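Postdoc handover notes: sequence design on the structure in folder B. Input tokens:
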């Protein structure tokens, strides 16, 4: 498909893959197919799923399996993502030696809004641990989560993909919570019965190849 001269793609992504995964992949894709115009729309997982089902977007990438739509959507897991708890260096939780989730819950969590896959993954883990989280702040973006946590507003719950710069700068610390193990897949979605144009098919094949290559290098 290297001879594709033109085309148009409308991609949808939930916040984590939309901010930290797809921009890099879209940039690489455009190096191979400079004639294809790419539009990337970012929203929370609930919004992206609905717009994919409404055929407003060609392909989507969201932060988990899409429950309740297995008959309508084709889903391919592309990458594992880890949800971590973070706090400012002077936050009380950083002085606790390997606490449990229940022990830090009273300090207050900073979470994404309803409809976010990051929040859904965190809530699933809370249920598994039989912990009712003390939600201090709810925010609508990963950047807002990081800023609130760095300011000492609570323990942020966020994808590890999105905090590289803050960790390096010493603004945030990943907390060593003994029973917090929260993993989720980043998943490519499309309607099962959708015909893919050459440019759409080219991007789907490209992203799957790139993610597979990244997984092999990590292994």
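Designed sequence:
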């Amino acid at each position: 498909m290297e001879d594709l001269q033109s085309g148009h793609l409308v991609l949808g992504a939930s916040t984590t893959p939309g901010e930290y995964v797809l921009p890099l992949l879209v940039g690489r894709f455009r190096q191979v197919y400079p004639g294809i115009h790419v539009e990337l729309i970012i929203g929370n997982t609930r919004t992206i799923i609905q717009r994919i089902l409404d055929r407003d977007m060609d392909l989507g990438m969201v932060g988990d399996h899409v429950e309740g739509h297995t008959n309508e959507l084709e889903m391919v897991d592309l990458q594992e993502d880890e949800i971590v708890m973070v706090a400012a260096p002077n936050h009380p939780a950083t002085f606790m030696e390997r606490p449990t989730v229940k022990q830090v819950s009273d300090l207050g969590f900073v979470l994404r809004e309803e409809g976010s896959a990051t929040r859904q993954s965190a809530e699933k883990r809370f249920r598994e641990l039989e912990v009712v989280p003390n939600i201090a702040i709810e925010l609508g973006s990963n950047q807002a989560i990081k800023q609130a946590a760095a300011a000492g507003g609570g323990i942020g719950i966020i994808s590890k993909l999105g905090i590289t710069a803050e960790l390096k700068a010493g603004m945030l610390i990943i907390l060593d919570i003994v029973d917090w193990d929260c993993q989720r897949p980043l998943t490519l979605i499309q309607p099962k019965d959708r015909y893919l144009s050459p440019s759409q098919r080219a991007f789907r094949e490209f992203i799957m190849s790139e993610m597979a290559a990244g997984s092999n290098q990590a292994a």
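Context for whoever picks this up: The first strand starts at residue 7 and ends at 13. Don't rerun without checking with the PI first.
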